[in-house]
Design goal:
single chain, about 230 residues, three-stranded antiparallel beta sheet, about 40% helix, globular
Length: about 230
């Protein structure tokens, strides 16, 4: 599935600390996720905490465990590990390396197979992206020619909420727009659209699609958040 049109891939070089930074040829830059996390409105922070707690309780109920604060916290960490595992599987499949299909007992297989069917030719997989103009960086999940025949930016997510409400994807849209802009700046390509693909256990994914205009509007909102960003501890 590797395209002969593949862009040069830069290995992400993360620097962990109070906030995540990336090493780039233009210097250290804050990550897109740190920027969005630190500038998220209070109401949105509360909504995301509540959604996380609901997911933790659902998983605890399925597993027969009592949900305590400690258990909920452990499950949040498990959700991060789950997302990392699913990303690694998708990366392996897209780069033609193959990967174990045993992710959480294979519960993500239906979503993964459906998601991959929409990818016609991957151009960049899990590559570092940065904007020297605006001063941010991150790791883009996928730039690809999709089943529409257009070059799109794709971001993978995982969630127990099925279908995933588009109203919850506000920051995900900004994240995807930031990656799309950085790819255009770095490689001189034109990203014609975007997709946030939310994978679910034992079910097809929820796909939230963005037009070129949607990406441009989302990037305008991202720049406002970027202007308001203050590194933690500064």
């Amino acid at each position: 599935m590797v395209s002969p049109l593949a862009l040069h891939r830069y290995e992400p070089r993360r620097v962990e600390g109070p906030q995540r930074l990336y090493e780039t040829p233009s210097g250290l830059m804050p990550s897109v996720t740190s920027i969005l996390s630190e500038t998220r409105p209070i109401g949105e922070q509360r909504r995301m905490r509540a959604a996380s707690e609901i997911s933790a309780r659902r998983r605890a109920k399925r597993s027969g465990c009592l949900t305590t604060l400690g258990a909920a916290e452990r499950r949040r960490y498990e959700a991060v590990a789950r997302g990392t595992a699913v990303h690694a599987l998708l990366e392996g499949r897209l780069m033609g390396m193959g990967a174990s299909s045993d992710v959480s007992g294979g519960m993500w297989r239906t979503s993964i197979e459906a998601a991959l069917l929409s990818v016609s030719a991957p151009i960049l997989v899990e590559g570092a992206l940065w904007s020297a103009e605006h001063g941010y960086a991150g790791t883009g999940d996928l730039i690809a020619i999709m089943d529409t025949g257009e070059l799109e930016a794709v971001d993978w997510k995982t969630s127990d909420h099925n279908p995933y409400p588009e109203a919850w994807a506000g920051d995900y849209k900004l994240q995807l727009a930031a990656y799309a802009h950085a790819a255009e700046e770095m490689y001189g390509v034109t990203i014609q659209g975007g997709r946030i693909v939310v994978l679910h256990p034992h079910a097809p994914p929820t796909t939230i699609r963005l037009t070129r205009s949607d990406l441009e509007m989302a990037f305008t909102r991202f720049k406002v958040r970027l202007a308001n960003y203050r590194p933690r501890g500064s």
